[in-house]
Amino acid sequence: MPIFARRSLFALTAVACLLAAPAAWSADDKAKSTQSEGKWVKFDAAANTVTVKITKDGKGAKPPADLEVKKGREATFKVNPTGSVLSRTSVAINGKKGEITDIPEGKTVNVYWVQDASDPKIRFARKIDVILSDEELDAKYGVDKIETD
Fold first, then answer.
1. Which one-letter DSSP state was computed for residue 67?
2. What pLDDT sits at residue 106?
3. Which pLDDT tens digits describe the chain residue by residue (149 residues)?
4. Residue 107 to residues 32, 60, 84, 118, Cα–Cα distance (Å)
5. Based on the domain organization, do 71 and 6 belong to the same domain?
6. Structural domain count of the chain
7. First and final CA of the chain: distance in angstroms?
8. Are 39 and 58 in contact (CB under 8 A)?
9. Residue 108: Cβ-neighbour burial (10 angstroms; 0-12, 13-18, 19+)
10. 148 occurs within a structural domain
11. pTM for this entry
12. Residue 144: inside a domain
């Protein structure tokens, strides 16, 4: 292979690596959320925050020490109920799209959150999943009891 061809191949490879690196880093950042399960307490529309009483320790990425949530305590999360899909807090109720205002007090929820980009001392909820109770699932799908024989 001539020297010119080798240098051209090397240059193209280097450029491809440089272009691919930022995309890989940003994808890695997006994957670093923490999942916390708790009971829904309230949504404050004026402050754009939700409060959840944590019932299970978080899973996923380890947050900074000052943002960790503690089992049995209330935690507040900043939300963005409107806007583009990339920037708002999405809500799913039993797997279907919902709104933050649709979540009743006392429901079990999973909150997927990260450190807020604009204020590192605040938790930002990217996604909130409402978990239906066994009774609600039974009523919805017409199953009273699973028999085991």
1. G
2. 93
3. 566 555 565 555 555 544 444 444 444 445 489 999 999 999 999 999 999 999 998 888 888 888 999 999 999 999 998 888 788 999 998 888 999 999 999 999 999 999 999 999 999 999 999 988 778 778 777 765 555 55
4. 25, 22, 26, 29
5. no
6. 2
7. 72
8. no
9. middle
10. no
11. 0.71
12. no
Instruction: Say if residues 113 and 33 touch (Cβ distance below 8 Å).
Output: yes
Assign residue 82 a region: left if phi > 0, alpha if psi is -120 to 50, beta otherwise?
Answer: beta
Q: Looking only at Cα atoms, what is the longest distance across the chain?
A: 75
Q: Are residues 94 and 120 in the same domain?
A: yes
Domain that holds residue 11: 1-31
3-state helix, strand, coil in the chain (%, to 5): 30, 35, 35
In a domain, 113, yes or no: yes
